[in-house]
Amino acid sequence: MAQIDTALFDHAWARFEAWLATHSPADHAVLRRPARPEQLAFLESRLGFALHPELKALLELHDGAAEPAASPGSRFALPAGAFLPLGHRLSSVDDILMMYDVLVDVGEDNIEADLWEEDALAVNLDRCVPFALPNDGGVAFIDHRPGPSYGHVYEMGIGSGDLNGTLWATSLTELFRALTNALETSNPFLHYVPTTYEHESGHHCVEWEIRH
Fold first, then answer.
1. What digits encode the pLDDT tens for the residues 107-120?
2. Domain total for the chain?
3. How far is CA 40 from the centre of its chain?
4. How far apart are CA 191 and CA 38, in angstroms?
């Protein structure tokens, strides 16, 4: 398996986080503290294989993004932290463990359905590790199968029955590099266009509109 240079990931993430800190401080503020080494060791023991180095590096920086509570007097919680396309929020180790079990179950159901080729994502979800979740039953995950797709980032709409998956990037490094480029230039990432949501509190959060 090719050597993974996590220094490239660190640089890509640092650019992304710096943009959030400057232009969307409410989003930046909900990034959690680093995951503890024992949490990561437990996660790998539950998975039965090592985390991709880029995902491990991300968790060593932030154990996901917290969901903020509604401000006093506000009708709605500030949607801070859902700064990835489709409203995905970075997952904590606990969230990853929970959603991984769901992926395994879905993959087993797909195997029993006998509708996919043996190399399809839908029947290999036990080798896919979630790293972000929206509110609609989807999941963003990293392919951990050995081979050319190792480290690829996919989004899958499990709640909508879309089990083919959409390739977001060939790595987390490429994902955050592309997202930051889009944020800096207001150009689309795939068919998602960066914009901002203004909460009644006056805070702004990153939002991605779908361009058809």
1. 999 999 998 999 99
2. 1
3. 17
4. 38
